[in-house]
Amino acid sequence: MKSIIAFSHQLLKDIIQNGDVVIDATCGNGNDTAFLSRLVGKTGKVYAFDIQKQAIEKTQVLLEKNNIENVELIHAGHEQVSHYIQDQTITGAIFNLGYLPHGDPSIITVPETTIHAISSMLALLKKRGRIVIGIYHGHLGGTTEKNEVLAYCEQLDQKKYQVLQYQFINQTNKPPFIVAIEKK
Ligand SMILES: C[S@@+](CC[C@H](N)C(=O)[O-])C[C@H]1O[C@@H](n2cnc3c(N)ncnc32)[C@H](O)[C@@H]1O
Q1: Which residues lie with the beta carbon below 6 Å from any ligand 1 atom?
Q2: Does pTM surpass 0.90?
Q3: To which H or E segment does residue 155 belong?
Q4: CA of 26 to the centre of ligand 1 (A)
Q5: Tally: H helices and E strands in the chain
């Protein structure tokens, strides 16, 4: 069975092609941004958001190290996506909720802006496109965000979207899980 990270990548790898436009909604240390960059290739584009300067700088360093040039780094909240992407559709997006690994654990994603961003990205999503959300909820505030994001995803119209949950149910200490939304 694939780990949470490996499965989230697989869900995106299955649908993203060269030339596509995609979003890393929480770039953090930049690992998912670099992964998406390879999937879309030189003719594609990755928009990568984070509210922390430290995350943008770390991602920038990783991109430079790997000679990656198809990424636009955006030092702003993902809930502002419609200010940055207007005339394009996206094939995929990834969110990793929670706090920056090795960073300040008090700076976390919060339900209101997370749900606003998911909703805005669904409007930009192509048919068969996917939004993959890694729900890390072991921290303070994590349970509230998990519950609100799940409630939002559960009420999405099944005629328009398929919503998947991927979770190891015998692990202790609030393990992360994935929710993935595919547009029909
Ligand atoms: C779990 S980390 C992301 C890890 C990242 N995917 C990686 O590979 O390192 C969550 C990130 O979300 C960022 N964040 C919190 N609120 C945000 C918002 N409204 N918009 C964009 N990023 C946000 C945090 O600053 C943090 O870097």
Answers
A1: 26, 28-29, 31-32, 49-52, 55, 77-79, 96, 98-101, 107, 109, 113, 136
A2: yes
A3: none
A4: 4
A5: 6, 7
> pLDDT means per 10 residues in the chain (184 residues)?
98 98 98 98 98 97 98 98 96 97 94 98 98 96 97 98 98 96 98
CA 134 – CA 18 distance, rounded (Å): 24
Ligand 1, from 35, 51, 177: best to mutate by most atoms within 8 Å of Cβ? 51
Parallel, antiparallel or unpaired: strands 45-49 and 21-24 = parallel
Which residue, 109, 101, 107, is CA-closest to 79?
A: 109
> Do residues 139 and 145 lie in contact, with contact meaning Cβ atoms separated by under 8 Å?
no
